[in-house]
Amino acid sequence: MSLAELIRERRSIRKCNSTPVEQELVVELLHKATRLQPTVEAGSWRVVYAGTPEARKRLVDCMLEQMSQSKLGKLIPGKLLDVFKKRFTDIPAHVIVMSTVGPDRLTNDRNYAAACGLMQSFQLLGWEQGLGMLWDTESMIQNEGFFKGIGLREDERFVGILHMGYYDKAPRSRKRTPAEQKWTVFQGQTT
Ligand SMILES: Cc1cc2nc3c(=O)[nH]c(=O)nc-3n(C[C@H](O)[C@H](O)[C@H](O)COP(=O)(O)O)c2cc1C
């Protein structure tokens, strides 16, 4: 598969099967992804991996902590919450990515952007091996309780979680915004 095909054909996987994901593969993909990105400085990002059933359960508890304690969350029937929990706990592996907060906004943004680039390379390299992922940044998990649970440090920013697993069927592509709609030609003179 060419690189262009790989980029075009990768899909977000929201439903994976129970085939285990080996930690060695995750580490290898991470190594490969970092090698594609010479601008990522060592120390500007960090990854937390959850792969065992116990770790996955703990992570899902952290993800749902705020919601299950909120007024709205308390209205959700227990059974529905259990279904939701199981859906995430069954996902074979999760990679949580954090970037380093720098001394100024530019450094923060660069570190964050580099970590995003790393995540995209990682997703693509995984896809090449038949491994599907979902990049998760849902507002539901973006709270202090979750950040504390995953061990986010004072000088770190949460970038996202990649939930990963093998899939039986890739979903169809979503509609894309034509590039022309995002295109402005900068003129030599103001009109
Ligand atoms: C920065 C970023 C954050 C994302 N956050 C979420 C998310 O919180 N929940 C989700 O379901 N998908 C999330 N996604 C996945 C996108 O929704 C997904 O890329 C989109 O549905 C297009 O599907 P595709 O990846 O199959 O092309 C995120 C993607 C990116 C790049």
Question: Can you describe this structure?
Answer:
The chain is of the alpha+beta class and 191 residues long. It has one domain (11-171): NADH Oxidase (3-Layer(aba) Sandwich), CATH 3.40.109. 44% of the residues lie in helices and 16% in strands. It contains seven helices and four strands. The chain has a four-stranded antiparallel beta sheet with strand order 1-2-4-3. Helix 3 (53-69) packs antiparallel against helix 5 (78-89). The longest helix is centred in the middle third of the chain and has 24 residues, at 105-128. The protein is globular, with a radius of gyration of 19 Å. The relative contact order is 0.21. The site of flavin mononucleotide has 10 residues, from strand 3. Flavin mononucleotide binds next to strand 3.
Blueprint (SSEs and pairs):
Layout: H1 3-9, H2 23-35, E1 45-50, H3 53-69, H4 71-75, H5 78-89, E2 93-100, H6 105-128, E3 131-136, H7 144-149, E4 156-166
Antiparallel strand pairs: 1-2, 2-4, 3-4
Helix pairs in contact: 2-6, 3-5
Bound molecules: flavin mononucleotide.
What is shown here, in short?
Helix content is 44%, strand content 16%.
General form = globular
Describe the sheet with the most strands: 4 strands, antiparallel
CATH topology: NADH Oxidase
Overall CATH class: Alpha Beta
| Helical stretch tally | 7
Strand content: 15-25%
Low-confidence stretches: none
What hetero molecules are bound to the protein chains? flavin mononucleotide
Total beta strand runs: 4
Helix percent band: 40-55%
How do the strands of the widest beta sheet line up side by side? 1-2-4-3
